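Attaching the record inline, Q. Sequence:
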Amino acid sequence: MTTTTILSIIFSLVVAGCLSFYQYLYKAKNKSKTYLLLAFLRFMSVFGLLLLLINPILTKNTLETVKTPLPIVVDNSSSISFLNGNKKTAELYQKLISNSALQEKFDIQSYQFDVEFQQSEKFDFKGTQTNLDAVAQNLKSINKNVIFPTVIITDGNQTSGNDYVYGFDATNKVFPLIVGDTTTFLDFKIDQLNVNKYAFYKNKFPVEAFLHYSGTRSVAADFIISQGNSVFSKQSISFSPSKKTALVNVLLPANKVGLQVFKATISSREKEKNTYNNTKNFAVEVIDQKTNIDIVSTINHPDIGALKRAIETNAQRKVTLIKPNDIKSLQDYSILILYQPTVEFKSVLDAAKLIGINTFIITGNNTDFNFLNQQEDNLSFKMSGQKEDYLAGFNSQFNLFSIDNIGFENFPPLQNPFGNITPKANVSVLLSSKIRNMDAHAPLLAFTENQGKRTAYLLGENSWKWRLQSHIDNQSFEKFDIFIDKIIQFLASNNSKKSLVVEHENFYNSGEAIEISAQYFNKNYEFDENARLTIALTNTKNKQTKNYDLLKSNNSYKVNLDGLEAGNYNFSIKELNTKTTYSNHFEILDFDIEKQFVNPDVEKLTQLALQTQGKAYFPDQIEVLIKSLLDNEEYKAVEKNTMTKTLLIDWVWLLVLISIFLSTEWFVRKYNGLL
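Structure, as predicted:
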């Protein structure tokens, strides 16, 4: 408290005393006890009001000794116990935190990490993932603007997160304390498997495997891919001290529809310390792309044969040739190719519209364009009786699906009646028509999509000449057949909008994050923020069902299902207001990434220490580490002066007291008739 404040308080005492004395004692004729009480009450209320105006503040200076932080971070992942380092890790931790000299010099902070980073003094070594980068990021935010050392007790085997070597602040030294047996054991390991999530039925899909060997002599191992009791691939791989890695590529047949789980194994006659990392499971969703296509025509033309051959080069396509009057049902067909339609096609077109079958319309000199105008909502035809040859112009901006220019500009012209073809709806043009290299301002090959129904238009006959020309140019029909297959693929896919859209994987590895997200749209296909989504999850083995709510997150609803055991699960997501449902399944593969290691990653931890100008230590060097920390002059305690200012009087309570004093004074005066 300053001298000015003290003088102000003394002055307030004098003013309050003089005022109360003058009002109740100096002028009073009868100096009874009542006047003494009134004088006291007036003194207290005036003094209180003056104190409020002065608002006295107490200032206190405190000297505080601030020690340098010393984070001791323990790897709590299951790989520590798998490498038989859990007891040694706990012992090293206790030696560090119980050292009195370290306690005196440093502010010891105790943390653990596995998939997450948190403060802890007890460890169970059951973490399913190791994220050393999380240690780097969290320590930066906890100890800002401070130079401090960090001791990390770990095996250095990271399974998630960014590269931790460059994640730590280079100005703060890191001292890895490496646990685990560093003896080099003979070990085969599948480092990584690369495989597509999906494959088409009766096709082949590639598998890429990265294999690793640890050892001191030349050996051979077998790499096997199997499913149940069936072996699909077996290769012998040679390793040596100079050749410790191998890349293997295998093509597997997709002979069964649905989720197919395979097992990749590397094995040999040599004895290994760890065989858990010799096996990895992987899964592929095999999709049946079987498409039945009906080519409807009233005439014979080489185009029909060329189309049938091009389409059926894909084993998943089957083409049937039929006349419009012979069609009894369209239920078995996915696509209709209407070759040069006439009035006879009316029943076919009506049935296709009713069922919603996608169509591929090919016109030519025998087409009834008046009939087409009556049936079509996408293109308008004003054609003459004169024949015309139309060359193709490729549109590089076409984006409905990926397609290469296979030399369309050099293909023979297609023939169609001369006239005007005008789009009436949103039409995507892949090939535009030219007459003797002059733009005809009309499409030659175009696509439309309206309310989920897709239609393709090839406006000219003699496309068989295109297939022949492609073979002349490339000595193969392959490019032209792929071009036709992409048109069929576009028509075979139905991209109609759904109100409930769910995203999930068909399989997960145990220990991975399992998240399912969903979007619910109203009738205008707008995201509904008031939807109520729940998921019913059933384990197919024990038939137990659990229910969860999906929580809103930005423009989707999500549920986290971490912690599920390996196995098959069926699930159903329901929107409670409209009862809309989506059902599917997924599988959790039995895979523990923490059991993939036989040694600590000494090289990586040493690199981390060098990057931060620290040093890596082993368990038998714990005393050397402690001495190094104690002898380092960089880490000194700092005296910090803390100034605190507090109000001498709580103004709220002072106002209450002033109110009490003034009220009491008024009642006493009223009672004694002094008002």
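The radius of gyration is 42 Å. The longest strand covers residues 379-394.

More tomorrow.
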